[in-house]
Amino acid sequence: MLPSSRLHCNSSKSLRHEHLIRFACIGGLDGENAADEHDTGNKAAIGTRPAGLDAGHPGMTSHMGNVVFLAVLFAAACHAGWNALIKVGLTPLPTTTLISVGAGVVALAFAPLTGFPAAASWPWLLASIIIHLFYFAGLIETYRTGDLGQVYPIARGAAPLMTATIAALWIGENQSFIGWIGIVALVTGVFMLSARGGREETHIDKRAIGFALFTALMICAYSVVDGIGGRLSRNPNAYSVWLFAGIAVVMVPYALFRDGREVIPAMQRYWLRGFVGGALQFASYGIAIWAMTVAPIAIVASLRETSVLFGALIAVLVLKEPLRPVRIAAALLIVCGLVLIRLQ
Q: pTM for this structure?
């Protein structure tokens, strides 16, 4: 498990990152005491923010920055891994249910070690469980109505821009100019991975695009909510454990209501694959939640989307799909985005 982040605020002064990106702190301090005169204008611009997020943050050392950067890239690789693992010919409903249950089982195994998150984080945790249910519902419909290779990058590519905007307006985590350029470059590369290259393009149903954008909105929502909840939890590991346990609890009745005749046989037959995929999912997003307690939410959300690049590498190296020029260009854009994000 990752070390818990315990961010403590001093009401007499603000501790800030060298680039003035403000992290959330735990404690629910009054905003007037927690922020200094340099933050006053920014607070007025963003309006009301969640309690406990008005203070400054301790800056990361260069070493910690590297640790977070590499950890989130590893999480993105895990994300691509469980997405590739679950492509077993099942329809989206039993697939997402299998992974959710597998992740919940793995999470509960760590519950005796992590304990419970702080009470202040429980409203955010419960909200995230509900958002994840809508996310999976949207994802299922996205896969059902559209081609996976095209709608998935749309869903994953739109989310970082939404998240960066919300984090800047609501939480006050403003990116530098270089940071914004890096995010846009990375997102553009993700979108380009949906291109078909020399093959005949497949018509995309407008409903599929709508569901993909709805899914992107849900990704943005749970990223911001879990970033705040993880910080308020004083124990992001415990927050992750009970989040995944809660998701499993709500996904099972939802799946049975939708089509129990399909879901139950699939879970009986592919339970081991679901368990392994769930473990990868738990590791992937658990790392991301921890990272959002020590780094800006928008940066972590953007780095997570490199999972699409890892997925493309798996497709080329393992599944032997052709390496088209558009994929090379997309990969270069994503790498450029990563470099710019790291340099900001």
A: 0.76
